[in-house]
Amino acid sequence: MNNSPIATSIFDLFKIGPGPSSSHTIGPMKAAFDFLERLSVLSEEILKTAQSIHIHLYGSLSATGKGHGTDRAIVAGLLGWQPESADPVALMDLLKEPTVTYPVRVGECVVELAPEHIHFERKKYDSPYANTVVFQLRSATGPLFEEEYYSIGGGFILRKGDETVDQPVAPIPYPYRTMKELKARLYDHQLSLEQLMLANETALTGRSSKEINQRIDLILEVMHKAVRRGLRQTGILPGSIKLRRKAPVLFQQARGLAQSSDSFLIFLNAYCLAASEENAAGGIVVTAPTSGASGVIPGLTYLARHHFHYNKPTLRKGMWAAAAIGFLVKHNASISGAEMGCMGEIGTASAMGAAFLTHCAGKSIDAVEAAAEIGIEHHLGMTCDPIGGYVQIPCIERNAMGAVKAYNAFLLATAGTPANQKISLDAVIKVMKATGRDMSTKYKETSEAGLALSATEC
After folding, report:
1. How far apart are CA 315 and CA 399, in angstroms?
2. Smallest Cα–Cα separation from 88: which of 134, 33, 157, 29?
3. Nearest to 336 by CA among 426, 439, 227
4. Distance separating alpha carbons of residues 291 and 294, to the nearest angstrom
5. Quick one: pLDDT band at residue 166, thresholds 50, 70, 90?
6. Which residues contact 284 (CB under 8 A, 6 or more apart)?
7. 3, 277 Cβ separation under 8 angstroms
8. What is the DSSP string of 139-166?
């Protein structure tokens, strides 16, 4: 277990950026931007001999990086683009022409970046994380400056030499590492979950309560915009699979069956597919907790807003519960598909969604824990085996299935006495971590096994 307290901002968990993958698109873009900033402080003596930048991708970044747009994301970061402000259309246009080079400006110098400078390495690399990228500034005679980064899921990155992923920048008033500790803080201080989370967030970010609430509202709006765009868009998704969008068809079916008992589920499926298809198309989405799982929470919150008619304070309340579960999984296991398989992405999103629904309904923290535990428990062992390296099959439908499981977990957790739940959330997260560790690497976002091997049939 990580012995430091959880010190992650809700806005680091829920990040705005382009699809299709937080670990393969947003993370590498952030790493490239960070490398660019570090180049800017090098001496003129070093920079005047620089001729090229080379990027070496390892692990899943190499195995599925092409389908996930990792190369485009790295070029974007070296051009100074940031995930939240990147133009998704311009991003998709990068590297379309193999002869085009890109000028990377470093101080007064310009270094040309060409497609052949991005190396998808197939050899093993001694690294503590599955997704590793090494940037090198080179002269004619060899490397001048080098940095190594790890993309650890959900768009989070770690630079080699950094001591911790979550390093508190200020004292946290209510530190916790586990659900057991979180519940103890709530009981000891007689706080609601959102009060505790808001106090910690204020200490971490220095933002006021008003600013934090406004930012959560923005996150929800970006999620819901992705749903609305996905419900309108038709046609074929990018990539060699030629997968046709399904969300608009489902949405029309649901509207036509408004009086049917099936319409509720069809609406939920449509909302989740809509956001997930937007992610697959490289549109702007919110990591929840990853881009590959960015259809579950948007679908459930859209349902809560438009079918349950929950107001903004209630939706914010649910988002704090979802964040708490995401923090606990990230801190004590991983939300990365390359580390945990799909249970790290969809499994975590489903648990977060179950917690969201339960807390919005005004249920106890014990019920929130039970719902999240059920959500993870029934995703244990789920592999990440995307066909062709694209975040499409089985990823898009898994978002819908994860949301349905989240809703059922909410029903199961609130049907009886939550305290009677035999498995704690902390216990199932430990099992999740052990399962991810034991899972064969080829089932963890490499497209080398499972459904990925059926690519020739598509």
Report:
1. 20
2. 29
3. 439
4. 5
5. very low
6. 16, 17, 18, 19, 88, 222, 225, 226, 278
7. no
8. -SSSEEEEEEEEE-STT-EEETT---SS
**Six-digit token pair at 165?**
């992923």
Each domain of the chain, given as residue ranges in start order, spans: 10-159, 179-457
pLDDT band for 409, please (50, 70, 90 cuts). very high
Mean pLDDT along residues 107-130 = 89
Is residue 110 exposed (0-12), middle (13-18) or buried (19+ Cβ within 10 Å)? exposed
Please state, in angstroms and as integers, the Cα–Cα distance from residue 320 to each residue in 183, 205, 353, 378, following that order.
14, 15, 11, 23
End-to-end CA distance of the chain: 42
Q: Which residues pair with 349 in a beta bridge?
A: none
Segment 436-456, tens digit of pLDDT: 999 999 999 898 899 989 865
- For residue 297, CA distances in Å to 67, 115, 334, 349, 401 come to 24, 36, 18, 7, 12
Neighbours of 25 (CB within 10 A): 30
Residue 167: pLDDT band (50, 70, 90) is low
Q: What is the residue whose two structure tokens read 């029934």?
A: 378
Say whether 328 sits in a helix, a strand or coil. helix
pLDDT digits (tens, 9 = 90+) for 332-377: 999 999 999 999 999 999 999 999 999 999 999 999 999 999 999 9
Specify the CATH number of the domain 10-159: 3.30.1330.90
Whether residue 115 has a cis bond before it, omega within 30° of 0 = no
Strand partners, 112: 103
Residue 112: CB atoms within 10 Å: 12
In sequence order, what are the beta bridge partners of 55? Answer: 118, 135
CA 122 to chain centre: 25
Q: Are strands 132-138 and 52-58 parallel, antiparallel or unpaired?
A: antiparallel
Report which DSSP code applies to 292.
T
Cα atoms in the 13 Å half-sphere on the side-chain side of 48: 3
> Rounded to the nearest 10 degrees, what angle do helices 348-360 and 365-377 cross at?
150
Burial of 209 (0-12, 13-18, 19+ CB in 10 A): exposed
By C-alpha distance, which of 289, 269, 238 is closest to 404? 269
